[in-house]
User: What shape does this take?
Amino acid sequence: MKRSLETLKEDLRHDCKKAENIIEEINNDNDRHIIIKRMAQQINNRINDIQEICSVDKYNLYFNGKVAIGKSTTVCNLFG
Assistant: This one.
């Protein structure tokens, strides 16, 4: 089943919101170790970057995947 880019973006926004809620819980928990809170902040920063990228309508191509599977190589090959 092929999903539209807008559907994929909406799913990603939904997942980002769920992650933000978890991060908020972590930050509000006074029993959490400081390292866990710092990691949560780094994840939150990345979520903000992803949301900013998804909010730009000029992008109509989206790559999502694990590390070292060829996303950057594909983009470099597309644009020479």
About this structure: The longest helix spans residues 5-28.
